Amino acid sequence: MRRLLNARPRGGARLLLGLLPIAALVMLYLVAAEARHAENPRDKILPTPAAMAQSIEVMAFTTDPRTGQIPLVADTRASLTRLGTAIGTAAVTTLVLGLGIGLLPFVRAGLGPLVAAISVIPPIAVLPILFIVFGLGETSKIVLIFVGVTPFMVRDMASHVSAIPEEQIVKAQTLGASTWLVALKVALPQAMPRLINSLRFSLGPAWVFLISAEAIASDVGLGYRIFLVRRYLAMDIILPYVAWISLLAVIIDLLLLAWSRAAFGWAHAPGGRR
Question: Domain containing 140 — which CATH number?
Fold first, then answer.
């Protein structure tokens, strides 16, 4: 008898299983919205699909006469620019510090405790400090995301690099490899898949920090728009924006996964459980 533990969905069945919970949530929302509007046609808490479609048309396809831009396009561009700059900087920093702390005992002794201490500080708590130091412009928002995700990524990378089997490093040194070559030829190829994986796991917190910073001090951005219209209970705008943010996050995650599989296929075992 085949055990459920060993059963794996294939092809269309896997796609169907992934779509079923989403479809169930959509149906639940539609039923709840219809019930609320039957009692109160002017209800704003659960807008109907027609109301959201009308708002999407305004936000995504109509130019704002005040700014001369399409709101959703301008907000998306601003948020993705901030997110991409912060995540890119965090990735480079993680790679450099992670390799240094993981490979070099003196660097581990000097920077390891500092990174560990910074990683336990709630990033939102330092947001006022960032606004005071860097002002209310783009820098403070980017730094918040950077500070929020980098320490955890560095610790994860350093732990992964330090776990590289000692015999690999010894063999490389026996063949005459310098410290630089060991880092470049032995540690770096094994660190890259881990870095991409860390980026994927850091996307969620990065979006949280981005939305928080935009909500407090910004004049454009997805987070700014959500908190701007909340005072009017404009759920017909908020819900599509939240769905758009979720879609962007999923697309970025899938792109990172595709990159990892294409460039480092050996790190994705064909028989694995993921």
Answer: 1.10.3720.10
The one-letter amino acid code at 242 reads V
- Residue 43 in tokens: 């209800």
Residue-wise pLDDT tens digits, 28-83: 988 888 888 888 888 888 898 888 999 999 899 999 888 889 999 999 999 999 99
Average pLDDT over residues 145-159: 94
Q: Look at residue 112 and tell me if it is in a domain.
A: yes
Residue 219, in any domain of the structure = yes
Q: Which pTM value belongs to this model?
A: 0.87
Q: Which of 151, 126, 145 is nearest to 79 (CA)?
A: 145
Q: How many domains does the chain have?
A: 1
Domain-located, residue 22? no
Show Cβ contacts of residue 199 under 8 Å, excluding neighbours closer than 6 positions. 87, 90, 91, 153, 256
Asked if the structure places residue 36 within a domain, the reply is no
The boundaries of the domain holding residue 71 are 47-267
